[in-house]
Amino acid sequence: MRLALQQWLDSPRSITYASLTTLAIGLVFVFVWAPHPWSWRGIDQYDDLARALARGEPFGTTDVPWGYAYFVALFYALFPGTPWAAVTAQVIINALTPILLYRLARPAVGQRVAALAAWITAIFSFNTIYASTQTSDSICTVLFLASLVCFVRAHQASSTWGFAAAGVLSGLTPQFRPNMILLPVLVIAGYAFWPDTPERVGNGASGSGPPRRRRLIQCAVFLLAVIAMLAPWTVRNYRYTGTFQPTSTHSGIQLWYGTLQVGPYIESRAHNPRSIFASPAFDYTALEMPIVVSAHHQCAVPGTVLRLAYRTDRDPQLKWVDGREVSPGRPTFEIPAQPAPTAIYYFFDAGGDTSPHGGNEEPLIYFVSKDHLGDLDRRHELLDLFDLGRLMRHLAWQEPLPAAAALDLDGNGRTEVSDLRAAVAALMPEKPDPFAAFTAGDQSAVLRLSDGSTLAMPREFDGTQTDVEVEGTLAGALVSSHVSFDALRAGPTRRRTCAPAGDVSVNEVFYRKEPHDMRRYTTLAFDNISRDPAAFAQASAYRLVRLFIVRPGTGDLATTFQYRGSRLIFNAGLILSATYFALFVAGVIIAWRARSPFLYALIPIAYVPLTICFVLTNMRYTITVQPLMFVFVALAVAAVLRLDRSS
């Protein structure tokens, strides 16, 4: 039987059949049954983005790079309303994976091991699962392998054009998987500064590489090609946001999620109570750029036009802004860029009727600040989380109370627990009497709400939102609740059938919201890390290995996506991924002892977990390098089966 297997692996038709096997499995997953719940339209927002692109609309996000959305959009343009067309195309493209892996590995590990690796990839690759739905993984993997094949071939032939092709493919890869952006720099730096560039990288033979001058030229060509592929997206992002974004703005929230998955919450950030701080205490932006405001012009009286008026705490002079109709009945206004910190006061006017009703006497407030976690209400014009904290500290430890008159909400001339009750009621007007109790000790003052949730103010308080300890739903809602003292003093206003402006949004357009969110979430992440750096380091070390293993299925809706057969499929994935990871480790040991030239593949394999272990991750993030790991698996299997190497 071993002889028959050797003959089969030596056959030139074997690799073709391996690719056809990948294609057949992928088509079954597309048209018959797939071990995932996402159907053809996929996991992320790519379907909506691609449909918009196919309609001729601009690419409306910086949260994901452009590559995969444009790939899908091409098929929506050719086959309108047909999501299976793009999926079928990527299944066909994914069928190239065994061929590319074989061509990459054969010079280093020989015919049989390379062919065996191609067959393991053909049957067991997780990329084939993701190829049957709209995700960028399988296309990214093909681009990545193709870039490695081009790089190795360019090195062997000392071909400048080959390095240019490798650079183009390496520059395209991060536009499908952003975490791959630094790998080309690492690879080309090693190539440039390695004291001797032996041909053994490609074929195991000794010898000298190209002269250093030629090698540096090749490196420059490679890097220029990479930059050329990254430049259009980077320039586009800079024009939209004024910030340097070569990949996406999603890194901030991913890092924050990673800092939530520590300690007892290592497998589920959803249960970490600090996740409540996703909601800011105030409406604000960290960007010193023009502020985009939009509102629905409702109850429009013929002949009236909705306008916006604003002033700031730096300039009390009222200024008026005319809107432009981006969509019918919803004008958009642009307030000029303001330096941080600035408080902006604004209202809407239509023929003398204002929103809010009090107009300039009761304006809406928006902040420009780079202080993501502190008290932005420097003039004490809003009742907010920080005012609750001041009241609690005053009641618990008799600390001085700034703006005491404003916080005397019951008007009896004193600040007492009844004012705390009134403050909670003002911040939650839709809840009947949410206040339950207030208790204080030496180290903490605790506000208890009617649903049993708690908001605890520690005595050691550095003035940040995240210093407050929050448990439960109603207490969590207080974190981001605020109301202006002007509105509270005005009390109930005359009823109007309709205000002239409704559904107001500020900086909700993607090119303002997403860069701001990236900065806020990054700040939240570093705040979490600073509170327990050891726990974060331990969690990151755990994820270094955990990244390669499918998490077992659970019944927890907040932790594991639930669908028919999900627990069985997740557990099968656990067994399969754990098995191939163990074989991979064994294969690395075998390759190390044999001084295999394919050990260079450990660079990208190690790169992935080392660069993303500190963010929210799962096994899906490593499948780009999974084919390379299968070569080491094949080395282990070949050793067990005693398959003699065939070069």
Structure at a glance:
The chain has about 650 residues and is α+β, with helices and mostly antiparallel strands. It contains 24 helices and 16 strands. Among the domains are: about 1-250, no CATH class; about 290-370, Immunoglobulins (Immunoglobulin-like, Sandwich), CATH 2.60.40.10; about 385-480, no CATH class.
Helix content: 40-55%
- Distance between termini? 21 Å
- The coarse overall form would be elongated
Largest sheet: 6 strands, mixed
Strand proportion, as a percent range, falls in: 5-15%
Gyration radius, in Å = 30 Å
Structural class: alpha+beta
Low-confidence stretches: 197-208
Mean pLDDT: 91
Strand tally, please? 16
Number of helices: 24
Detailed description of the structure:
The protein is an alpha+beta fold. It has 24 helices and 16 strands. Among the domains are: 2-249, no CATH class; 288-368, Sandwich (Immunoglobulin-like), CATH 2.60.40; 385-481, no CATH class. The chain is 48% helix and 12% strand. Strands 1, 3, 4, 7, 8 and 9 form a 6-stranded mixed beta sheet that branches. The chain has a 4-stranded antiparallel beta sheet with strand order 5-6-2-16, with no helix packed on it. α4 (67-78) crosses α5, α7 (111-124) packs across α24 (626-641) and α10 (160-172) packs parallel to α13 (212-241). The two termini are 21 Å apart. The model is unreliable at 197-208 (pLDDT under 50).
